[in-house]
What does this fold into?
Amino acid sequence: MNAKSPDEAAPYDYQSFIDGFEEVTYWHFDWYSRIMAVLLYRTPRPTLSEHECRFGRFLETHGAPPGREGEFEKVRQLHIQMHVSAETLLTSASGGQQAERESFDEFVELQSLFLATCFNLMRDAFSDSCRLERQHAE
It folds into this structure.
């Protein structure tokens, strides 16, 4: 369902946002798993730049759903924090050393908060889309 964006220039494509956001959230969870694999198995590092991962590119190319700018910004900030935390974590484990516990705990906690925030934004975007669809049907 589409809704007019605040500037009324073009309708907001909720379905495109929901589909894309769902996909990049999956890929970011995969990125998280690859960070863990580096720690456990010394696999090659995935990209650590928040601008180079699929999720980061999505955030840079898609706008927030109308009225969800605050949630979108919270997701963006947590995304940046996750990448910074991953860099800190992997640096603490460089040279074959065990990762620092504090860095590991922070990374795991950020992942949980990040996913919960992403799911909330997706749920709210879906609810908004359904609400608009019902309004247009009436």
User: Anything to note?
Assistant: Helices lie at 14-41, 54-61, 69-92, 101-137.
